[in-house]
Amino acid sequence: MARKSRKQETAMAAPLMNPEDSIYLCGIYGRLSLVNSGKQDEGDSIENQLSICSRFVDGQPQMRLADTYVDNGKKGTTFERPEFNRMMEDIKAGKINCIVVKDYCAIIGLNQKDLENQGILA
């Protein structure tokens, strides 16, 4: 009689998580390189970024807003950003498991080579 693989049995026994049943604990992140002037008509203002992200989260039944992180006047070419670092700690602690940004430039202002050198992209 042929032997059965225990690895296969273990993998088959583990229930698969349905992403539609998951609740994502979201953190909204906003960043602006220059200190925000507070003008409401600026497309990339901190207020506009947070408003767009909040509306998105509110429209997703599987998302719950856990916290908001804002680095105003911080360049994206460095990770010396207090709120970014607090957000990373909250991810490690399990407080959030989803980050919502207006566009990826809010988190990353680095080019692909910089990201590869830091081990973020392969």
Break the fold down into its secondary structure elements and pairings.
Layout (H helix, E strand, L loop, with lengths): L5 H8 L10 E9 L13 H13 L4 E10 L9 H12 L4 E3 L11 H6 L5
Looking at the structure, what is the overall shape?
A: globular
CATH architecture: 3-Layer(aba) Sandwich
CATH homologous superfamily - what is it? Resolvase, N-terminal catalytic domain
- Can you count the helices? 4
- Element-level helix/strand string: HEHEHEH
What is the rounded distance between the termini? 45 Å
In percent, how much strand structure appears in the residues?
A: 15-25%
Contiguous low-pLDDT stretches (5 residues minimum) are: 5-17
- Helix share, percent: 25-40%
Q: What kind of sheet is the major sheet?
A: 3 strands, parallel
Radius of gyration: 19 Å
CATH fold naming: Rossmann fold
Structural class by helix and strand composition: alpha/beta
The CATH C-level name is: Alpha Beta
How many strand units? 3
Number of self-contained structural domains: 1
* Mean of pLDDT: 76
Q: Biggest sheet: strands side by side, in what order?
A: 2-1-3
